[in-house]
């Protein structure tokens, strides 16, 4: 294939990022089709991105003879069915996390993916494609830190979005703080360590919006995890960072330590004024991981053209979801949760 024709489903905030990248920033790719139940989103695809084919149903889009691959950015509950349908139509699939909301659905979806080995499937763990994280990963793999002992991850959304999340939580299911947000950090823990998580203990607190207690959602949560080789991992997740979008990772080993984005800097500018010396910070995930989103989509297209599978797999999505659900179970039961890897993949 000289040019991969992609159809996208879902044109919300993240969907528009992927759609714009495919249309403008990914060599060898064309945004051929778009699907949404929101007419304004389809107008955006036609008028702003020049998309030739627009559809209101996913079934219609994957029936198009002009589509080679799909990018799934729809609500998480639709992912298993849409992945299966696209695979059965012979299409390559890029899907945003998670693969599904329930472990059983994810396992069944992976069986479908495995039954189509000639089609590319890639899951949207974009932090693996961030240049800083890739640099740190090479240092770890080259043994520069020695043996890993502790991994610490912060993933905190800006407080500017908290009020809107509270309204969303009252009407919809996000999957919970750990599945919705910490799943990226859980994937990083597995990626850096090459080990599975064996047990977790998690907790949470709602301070700014205690009403989240009523819908079983968390404003801030923390988890301590033990990996199968006894490496320790600490996660902090939240929705209330006053300074902006805070994603930070620390790796401690027997020979040294790495910190990635200890200060979530927007750029290399320092502002000197009545507030002192100030470093602007990233305000949201599209800004912080702009290049990573492009890099992961470039990898997806390259995998299709080169007939190979990406490093990040559906199994990574399954394992991260298992851990995220165990964290939520720990919060609910106030207990230590032992984790067993999915038996069909052990």
TrEMBL record:
InterPro entries: Gfo/Idh/MocA-like_OxRdtase_N, GFO_IDH_MocA-like_dom, Myo_inos_IolG, NAD(P)-bd_dom_sf. It comes from the Bacteria. Pfam families: GFO_IDH_MocA (PF01408), GFO_IDH_MocA_C3 (PF22725). Residues 4-120 form the Gfo/Idh/MocA-like oxidoreductase N-terminal domain. The keyword Methyltransferase does not apply. SUPFAM superfamilies: Glyceraldehyde-3-phosphate dehydrogenase-like, C-terminal domain, NAD(P)-binding Rossmann-fold domains. One of its GO terms (molecular function) is inositol 2-dehydrogenase (NAD+) activity. Its EC number is 1.1.1.18. Residues 133-259 form the GFO/IDH/MocA-like oxidoreductase domain. Keywords: Oxidoreductase. PANTHER family: BINDING ROSSMANN FOLD OXIDOREDUCTASE, PUTATIVE (AFU_ORTHOLOGUE AFUA_2G10240)-RELATED, NAD(P)-BINDING ROSSMANN-FOLD SUPERFAMILY PROTEIN-RELATED. Belongs to the Gfo/Idh/MocA family. This is Inositol 2-dehydrogenase. The gene is iolG.
